[in-house]
Design a protein that fits this description.
Strand order of the largest sheet of chain B: 1-2
Strand order of the largest sheet of chain A: 3-2-1-4-5-6-7
Structural class of chain B: mainly alpha
Distance between the termini of chain A: 36 Å
Helix content of chain A: 40-55%
Strand content of chain B: under 5%
Order of helices and strands of chain B: HHHHHHHHEEHHHHHHHH
Number of helices of chain B: 16
Radius of gyration of chain B: 22 Å
CATH class of the largest domain in chain A: Alpha Beta
Number of strands of chain A: 13
Structural class of chain A: alpha/beta
Oligomer: heterodimer
Number of domains of chain B: 2
Number of domains of chain A: 3
Largest sheet of chain A: 7 strands, parallel
Shape of chain B: globular
CATH architecture of the largest domain in chain A: 3-Layer(aba) Sandwich
Number of strands of chain B: 2
CATH topology of the largest domain in chain A: Rossmann fold
Largest interface: A-B, 25 and 15 residues
Helix content of chain B: over 70%
Strand content of chain A: 5-15%
């Protein structure tokens, strides 16, 4: 563990727990963190950054605003010090209690037993401070015995050496986080920006300091990790046919999956409030163990006024139907965006609206093969004149040239382009993934009353996409109607100020423990999720 | 001892009673080869020489040889164990081409150093004809080199060649010593013995060259091994020191000891009896070595294979139990065979000593030292297991305690009187057995625990 602390004894209003993101890594979540900190200047923030290895974060991409009190860092894959690897010698009853707690944790039968065992373990670890190092965990007989018991309970048929090393590397990062607990910044409340290790650390911090905890998930960390592990080749699996996700996976992969499920549940259980970007994700969170009563939706926000002039251009263009109708696709040319379906739809559109052009704005260097295939399809379909791969573009430059936006992705969260298109008054044709349904149809009753901001299509359906585009483009009043609805929705429900207000209020109410009574224990009837599930 | 197991297994695979006996015989040669050759040659010489020269000369001759053995064993001890480890590691990592240059390197240094040691002892501190003194110095060097060459015998596949080398070395030693003794007296006998040993060394080196030889120059990485395996070096030193310390104490402090010449002494009541009792453990040693190198080493290998090649914990534990079983069978056999031999020898001690021309006083010492060597055999076998398990530190402490106890109790026994002679050796071996056994027991019980938990987190 390494930690750099801009010394500050002041208690922050909010400590943000960040895993592999702000202020080092560029991206959607980092931009969001930046918005929150800058948008709530009256609050004092402390940051706790969890990274893989220090060398992975050479450049700090965001300047810390003045209301950030401190930035503390720790790295999960940093080499453990020799001191930490040296077992504390002698016999210590405190240490024995820790190992007993570990054993109870491994042997817990239900999620709630496991959770209780975990907090018991944390208590014993606190009591054993100074009596135990990771070296004891590696070398002590009691630790070995607990491990042996866990093995014979969960996977007695598995290669032991792989189990052994998997177990070591499962525990190591958690131990590092535990070791870092003294460096957790003091704060009135902890706010983790993801589940996983950050959520886990935040839960421990909130527990130790007896403060409230908020968890915001942009994606679903646990789900993403599980998908990643299912495909990982570095985890040993005996020869067996891999059928699909979760089934037929080796026990060692299941160990990793169980770890992340467990981390997720610790964060969900401890959180006073769980925030998601759109309702669809709330269901997934519940699936992974979150209590629905704690979940609320705070979508990402944009600055709608930035798009005023584009809106004006659009309105002017559509006073009468324009001679050329430009359909915009903004996104990377990669399989997950399913550009091929878009191109097939383009062919169908061009048959009925020959003057239609497709502006595909986005980088294509990421997957050259896929881009190559896309170009071949364009030739094959004979629509070279109608399709323009523009490469990487600034959104403010291309939006004014577009009449309608299209999105054919097979997977999305809350796609910012749809929101920006709406703010600019453009109708959207989007596949029914992620938050698209909420963006186009509205979420709450009053939101729905605003009307539709475009049309929703099934994924992988060129015909539906083409139909939707043709219907909209051949009906100028509809273009304007949908565009205006989208613009209103963006202004009223997806503005940055609305998001900031929501968080301001959330912070206030959480700090005042207004949600405290909601800290409920999930029923013990939740499905069994032990470190390694039984066969 | 990588190669010997294979060869012994091959012999055993032929089945039948004679091949089993052959295997035992070969194990005996490998286990105590150079030592048996000398004893056999000396036995014959003893009989032959008493007719040729004066008793004082014969005594000088035998005392010189035992002194040479003691000194070379103690001083080459550290090199022997470290070199064995080095050869085993290189074999394991498939870098066998490194072994021969290292062997040459060691041989060169050992011959240089022990020429010096021999000259110092015999030219410096012994009064005898110059030819005798030079020959004895030469023999010192040769014996030291043979100890070093002996390490590689186990790696040789051509065991017939090894047997041949020993029988030729043995015969030449005897014949040359005998013939030269006729013309030059005791100095000739010493020279003849040296010639025979030179012959043996050359034949062994030839066999080694044939098997693993190449033209590389000496390697220095072997020297790092002394730093890395200093416990092994200490173990080699103390083990041999522990075996010899009681003799030295008798020579120097027993009022009954006689000065033969210069720094050479003899303790008539004690030392010859103990030398002879050493011969009694050859059968037990062969039996155990055979079991260790065939059955146990395979079980040991299987165990580690299951650890490394994705075995389940149940499999790993089952293979550990097989190891333990093999070991207890080995010790069972050792106790049976050696117990029988030692018992028979003790019962007929009177007759044997008569035959050897030793008196009744020695009979008690002899019986004690037969028990002592029996215990020493068990101790030695346990040490081998500790080395197998790579518990170098424990093995080192066993040998240190062994040496200290032997020194302490022997010193006391010299003061206490004849009836206690040999007790130091016996008690030391017994203490060694208890220590080593408890460690072997503990390490085997915790084998999988230590095997896994001792893995460093960062490789």
């Amino acid at each position: 563990m390494s930690s750099k602390e801009s010394a500050s004894s002041e208690v922050a209003d909010v400590c943000l727990m960040l895993e592999g993101t702000y202020p080092y890594v560029l991206g959607g979540v980092s931009a969001w963190v930046d918005q929150i900190i800058k948008g709530l200047p009256e609050l004092k923030f402390s940051l706790f950054f969890i990274g893989s290895a220090k060398a992975d974060y050479k450049k700090q991409n965001y300047q810390l605003p003045p209301n950030v009190l401190s930035l503390t860092e720790m790295y999960l894959h940093e080499r453990v010090s020799d001191e930490e690897l040296t077992p504390v010698p002698g016999n210590s009853p405190e240490r024995r209690k820790v190992f007993e707690a570990f054993d109870a944790f491994y042997q817990a039968d239900t999620n709630s037993d496991q959770r209780d065992a975990f907090w018991k373990l944390i208590t014993t670890l606190q009591a054993a401070d100074g009596h135990i190092t990771f070296g004891n965990l590696l070398r002590d007989r009691e630790a070995w015995e607990a491990l042996e018991r866990a093995y014979s309970r969960f996977c007695p048929e598995e290669s032991f050496i792989d189990f052994f090393w998997t177990a070591r590397f499962l525990h190591l990062p958690l131990w590092q986080i535990w070791r870092a607990h003294q460096t957790f910044p003091k704060a009135k409340l902890y706010h983790s920006v993801s589940a996983g290790y950050a959520g886990f650390a935040a839960a421990v911090a909130a527990h130790l300091n007896d403060t409230p905890l908020i968890l915001t998930e942009h994606g679903i960390y646990t789900k993403e990790r599980i998908a990643e592990i299912s495909q990982a080749e570095w985890i040993y699996e005996p020869e067996r046919s891999q059928i699909n996700f979760g089934q037929g996976l080796g026990k060692l992969k299941m160990m990793w999956i169980s770890l992340f499920s467990f981390l997720g549940r610790v964060a969900y259980d401890t959180s006073d409030q769980i925030i998601t970007l759109y309702e669809g994700n709330a269901n997934t969170q519940v699936e992974f163990g979150a209590d629905l009563k704690k979940i609320s939706v705070i979508p990402n926000g944009i600055e709608p006024s930035k798009f005023d002039h584009i809106y004006q251009i659009h309105v002017d263009r559509w006073k009468t139907a324009p001679p050329v109708k430009a359909i915009g696709f903004i996104g990377r040319v990669v399989p997950i965006k399913d550009v091929k379906t878009l191109l097939r739809a383009a062919r169908l559109v061009c048959e009925r609206i020959p003057e239609a052009i497709f502006l595909i704005a986005g980088p294509y260097a990421e997957d050259p093969n896929y881009f190559d295939e896309c170009q071949k399809i364009v030739k094959l379909l004979g629509i070279e004149k109608n399709v323009d791969f523009m490469g990487m573009q600034k959104i403010m430059d291309v939006l004014p040239r577009m009449d309608v936006l299209v999105l054919t992705s097979i997977s999305e969260g809350l796609p910012l382009v749809v929101l920006e298109g709406m703010a600019a008054g453009l109708p959207n044709v989007a596949s029914d993934v992620g938050a698209c349904r909420e963006l186009i149809f509205g979420r709450t009753p009053e939101d729905k009353a605003i009307g539709r901001a475009g049309r929703l299509t099934k994924i992988l359906s060129p015909a539906e996409t083409a139909n939707a585009l043709v219907t909209i483009l051949q009906n100028p009043p509809m273009v304007r109607q949908m565009g205006d609805a989208g613009r209103r929705r963006a202004q009223e429900h997806y503005s940055m100020s609305k998001m900031l207000n929501a968080y301001r209020e959330l912070y206030q109410r959480t700090a005042a423990r207004e949600f405290y009574h909601m800290r409920v224990t999930p029923s013990s009837a939740t499905p069994l999720q032990t470190p390694v599930p039984k066969p | 001892m990588a190669g010997i197991g294979l060869e012994l297994n091959k012999i055993l695979a032929r089945q039948g009673y004679t091949s089993t006996l052959q295997a035992y015989f070969y194990a005996a040669v490998i286990g105590s080869g150079p030592w048996l050759v000398t004893v056999a040659a000396l036995g014959l010489l003893g009989a032959a020489m008493s007719t040729l020269t004066q008793t004082a000369d014969v005594r000088l001759f035998f005392v010189s040889i035992s002194f040479i053995y003691g000194v070379t064993l103690i001083l080459t001890g550290p090199v022997q164990l470290v070199l064995t480890r080095y050869a085993a590691d290189q074999t394991y990592t498939n870098k066998t081409e490194r072994i021969f240059p290292t062997f040459v390197f060691c041989l060169a240094w050992i011959s240089l150093v022990f020429t010096g040691v021999g000259l110092l002892i015999f030219v410096g501190f012994v009064k005898a004809p110059l030819l005798y003194r030079l020959s004895a110095a030469l023999l010192t060097m040769l014996v030291a080199c043979i100890w070093i060459a002996g390490i590689f015998l186990t790696a040789l596949k051509d065991y017939l060649q090894v047997l041949k080398s020993f029988s030729i070395g043995c015969s030449v030693s005897f014949l040359a010593a005998w013939q030269l003794a006729v013309n030059f007296g005791v100095a000739g006998a010493m020279l003849g013995l040296a010639i025979g040993h030179a012959m043996l060394l050359i034949l062994l080196c030839a066999a080694i060259y044939k098997e693993i030889g190449n033209h590389e120059m000496g390697r220095l990485d072997f020297l790092d091994y002394f730093v890395r395996y200093k416990e092994l070096a200490a173990c080699g030193f103390f083990y041999n020191a522990g075996i010899w310390i009681d003799k030295f104490l008798f020579w120097w402090f027993d009022p009954g000891a006689e000065q033969v010449s210069g720094m050479l002494y003899t303790s008539p009541i004690y030392d010859r009896v103990v030398y002879f009792s050493f011969l009694t453990i050859v059968p037990g040693m062969a039996v155990f070595l055979l079991k260790l190198e065939t059955d146990f080493s395979i079980k040991n290998e299987t165990f580690y294979k299951h650890v490394l090649k994705k075995g389940t914990l149940a499999q790993i534990k089952a293979h550990k139990r097989a190891m333990v079983r093999s070991l207890s069978e080995g010790f069972g056999l050792l106790f049976k065979v050696q117990g029988l031999c030692s018992a028979l020898i003790m019962l007929s001690a009177g007759h044997i000593l008569d035959f050897l021309g030793l008196g009744a006083v020695q009979s008690g010492v002899f019986q004690i030292s037969v028990v002592a060597t029996f215990l020493l055999l068990v101790f030695m076998s346990l040490l081998m297991i500790l080395h197998y398990l790579d518990k170098r530190r424990d093995a080192m402490w066993c040998t240190i305690v062994f040496t200290l106890v032997n020194a302490g109790v022997t010193a006391w026994s010299i003061v206490a009187g004849e009836r206690w002679f040999g007790l130091g050796f016996m008690v030391a071996s017994g203490v060694g057995v208890v220590m080593a056994a408890s460690w072997v027991n503990k390490h085997l019980r915790d084998l999988e625990f230590f095997t896994f938990t001792s893995q460093p987190l960062y490789g």
